[in-house]
Amino acid sequence: MLPSARGLRRASAPRPPDVPPDAAQADPAVLAALLARHGWRRRGGAPGRYGRWTPPGPGGARTSLLVPESRAFPDSADLLGEALDALARTGDGAAREILLGLAVPSDEIRWRRDVPEGRAAGSPAAPWTAEEGLRSAARHTLLAAALAGRARTGYHGARHRRAAAAALEDVLPLGVSSGGRVLTAFAPVVPARPLAVRLHQALRAAREAVDHRRATGGMDAFDAAVGAGVSRELTEALITLVRGTEGAGVTISWAPAAGIPPGCGPDAEPVEFSPGDLPALREAGARYQRAEPSVAVRLTGTVERMRRDRADGAGTVRLRVLAGAEVPHVRVTLDEESYRIAGQAHLVGLPVRLDGRLDSKAGFRRLTGARGLSPVTVDEDERERLMKSLQENLDFFEEACGEDCGG
User: Fold this and answer.
1) Region Disordered: start and end of each range (predicted)?
2) Mean pLDDT, to the nearest integer, of 220-227?
3) Helices (H), 172-258
4) End-to-end alpha-carbon separation of the chain, Å?
5) Distance (Å, rounded) from C-alpha 305 to C-alpha 331?
6) Residues with Cβ < 8 Å from 234, sequence gap 6 or more?
7) C-alpha closest to that of 271 among 187, 214, 210
């Protein structure tokens, strides 16, 4: 699975098809489309009634499926059930993907890295390293697309991370194949199709911007590509995908049961990137980060940590953000009076409110120019929850805060 601190699958995510989908619910036309997508070939059959399908490869002729073209004939349901059972038993590597795509209408996202055989086998750790690199690149391209769904900006930093990571839990990774070179994930049409569409648009915009940069030397195409979802986060993900390879690509195939989303073309060739694209991607990422301005905010948050070098004077506070910005935590340097107020607010279980600017250079993780810090009154239920959190972390807080917290 793609790496994540909490994983990418919710409890309601589609289950792997350990048993064939219910033939009564399966669409034979969708099954035929999925078979064709994965290299199966139709080799005859009764026209208008059923087709005989064989898997790819030299031994494919030894296995065949009879797939009805519709449910118009009395034996269609029996043929479809037999075909699904046979597909579940076949040794074809794509069978699981076909069955999952039939059971849960999903867009297929496939990442591919072209790594020479010699390099992949150069050391015992090489295959494992290749898989980890592919997983990381795949997850970060998805994360960049999810971030673009929250805001179209050149550099997200720490903003919107929780919501974007939650969106990735709807995606079902199927694992790495071909010696660490290919990773496939399914994005269920409900609810993950918007994520797949954004990724489709952003990848193509990034490809066009790189081509423009290499042809003309100009970076203006990257500025325009922000509207399609391109960002520093996406360029960094593509760099991870391409680095150490002879080339890499991402292919998105739309769920046959749901059709092509508006504004998107049919199943297309992969969007490919090469090592020669890396300088343009690095330049774009740096440009996006430099251009993103700091943001004026009024934050409400709870004090989690406090630190200063001596018993008096200014100190640094870490706040868990409750409102005012789409970031989970910020660090802020406070003068002596504000530091004392923050410590007292924490001890009595109150959040604080303050104004400042989220520093883009720090990835929007640091608040600068802090002013107007004051405690915020909360209702009893919220106060009880905050006090419980305080008790759980009291030993650390007393150590970090020191005697000044009680003054």
Assistant:
1) 1-24
2) 97
3) 189-216, 220-225, 232-242
4) 51
5) 9
6) 141, 144, 145, 148, 202, 206
7) 210
* Separation of alpha carbons 310 and 236, rounded Å: 40
Distance separating alpha carbons of residues 290 and 155, to the nearest angstrom: 9
Residue 386 has what DSSP assignment? H
Q: Calculate mean pLDDT across residues 248-260.
A: 95
Question: Can you give the length of the chain in residues?
Answer: 407
What gap in Å lies between CA 167 and CA 109, rounded to an integer?
15
Mean pLDDT of 313-336: 96
Backbone φ, ψ for residue 272 (5° rounding): -110, 150
**Residue-wise pLDDT tens digits, 145-168:** 999 999 999 999 999 999 999 999
Q: Where are the domains of the chain?
A: 28-103, 106-291, 295-406
- Residue 136 and residue 128 in contact, taking contact as beta carbons nearer than 8 Å: no
Q: Which residues pair with 108 in a beta bridge?
A: 186, 253
Q: Is the peptide bond before 191 cis (omega within 30 degrees of 0)?
A: yes
Q: Is 59 exposed, middle or buried (0-12, 13-18, 19+ CB in 10 A)?
A: exposed
Which CATH number, 2.40.50.140, 1.20.1290.10, 3.40.50.300, 2.60.200.20, labels domain 295-406? 2.40.50.140
Largest CA distance in the chain: 89
The predicted structure's pLDDT at residue 15: 45
Q: How far is the CA of 282 from the CAs of 72, 111, 213, 232, in angstroms?
A: 56, 20, 12, 9
Residue linked to tokens 């004392």: 340
Rounded Cα distance between 267 and 260, Å, is 8
CA angle 247, 252, 256 (to 5 degrees): 150
